[in-house]
Design brief:
Rossmann fold; binds 1,4-dihydronicotinamide adenine dinucleotide; binds ligand LFPNKLMZ; oxidoreductase; NAD(P)-bd_dom_sf
């Protein structure tokens, strides 16, 4: 059985990493995909590859460029989905950055770019998706890729962790605001997943060994590890799940001592 047959799914930052893995699984589960990407040359090229991979599965996909920090990008993603596929069933807010930096000398530009990309753009993208779902009158599913970092701190992530806590909180409040329209809002909290976002950080062998040793399952996550949890929340199997947060961290959070 395909869990997302004929559902239209928009995913931001779907050109690589977690977003790409989730997009491919959504396609395998029967969805039509809107692959959001940054609009930069590298993002466009990678997004076109993801579209080809989905077409190779005999499923449909389009790519749409737009800076996640731009408060109008959400509107453009929704417009593209509606004009190509006629509706929006699922919106996955995944695009994000984590430029590791210490707190005491945090440049204002790095702070603003992180908050604008991870949270401010997301707020209005979620609003745009919700308005479209309300107009359609058949409910929907909104999923924010938050983080274990919504729950714990990081000395080099003082600009980043508040955005992830903000996304978790946004999903909780939106679950309340949008429940009357049967629009479900949930947060997925990945642990440490090996992707481009942390390639440099995890190139430190001591840090890599520490992260592995803290993880109950003994390995870092892979982008594919997020695919099942997101598909579940997107699907009707999760029809009574809203306002929830799902840790997908291999047991990293619980492993204190
Ligand atoms: N990898 C990890 O350990 C964890 C990742 N996350 C979150 O997962 C999400 C995906 O990250 P990963 O796949 O790990 O990293 P990644 O760097 O491979 O992917 C990030 C995606 O966001 C896109 N993006 C970045 N800035 C953008 C912008 N201004 N406009 C449009 N798109 C933009 C990138 O092009 C890329 O497709 C992020 O929100 C990240 O915070 C959360 C917890 C852990
Ligand atoms: C980018 C980091 O490795 C990653 O991002 C998160 O949200 C996790 O908590 C990790 O710190």
């Amino acid at each position: 059985m395909m869990l997302l047959k004929d559902k239209v799914v928009i995913i931001t930052g779907a050109s690589r990493g977690i977003g790409r893995a989730v997009a491919l699984e959504c396609a395998r589960q029967g969805a039509k995909l809107v692959i959001g990407h940054s609009g930069r040359a590298s993002g466009l090229a990678a997004a076109k590859n993801v579209v080809s991979e989905i077409q190779d599965l005999d499923k449909q996909a389009i790519e749409v460029g737009g800076d996640a920090a731009d408060l109008d990008t959400g509107d453009r993603l929704i417009d593209a989905a509606v004009s190509t596929f006629g509706k929006v069933d699922v919106f996955v807010n995944n695009a994000g950055i984590c430029p590791f930096h210490s707190f005491l000398d945090m440049p204002k530009e790095v702070y603003m770019q992180t908050v604008n990309t991870n949270l401010n753009g997301a707020y209005f993208a979620v609003q745009a998706a919700a308005n479209q779902m309300k107009k359609q009158g058949k409910g929907g599913s909104i999923i924010a890729i938050s983080s274990i970092s919504a729950l714990v701190g990081g000395a080099m992530q003082t600009h980043y962790t508040p955005t992830k806590a903000g996304l978790l909180s946004l999903m909780q409040s939106c679950a309340v605001a949008l429940g009357p329209y049967n629009i479900r809002c949930n947060a997925v909290l990945p642990g440490t997943i090996a992707t481009d976002i942390n390639k440099e950080d995890l190139s430190d062998p001591d840090k890599l060994a520490y992260m592995r040793s803290r993880t109950c399952l003994g390995r870092l996550g892979e982008p594919d590890d997020l695919a099942g949890p997101v598909v579940f929340l997107a699907s009707d199997m999760a029809r009574y799940v809203t306002g929830a947060s799902l840790l997908v961290d291999g047991g990293l959070f619980v492993n204190l001592q």
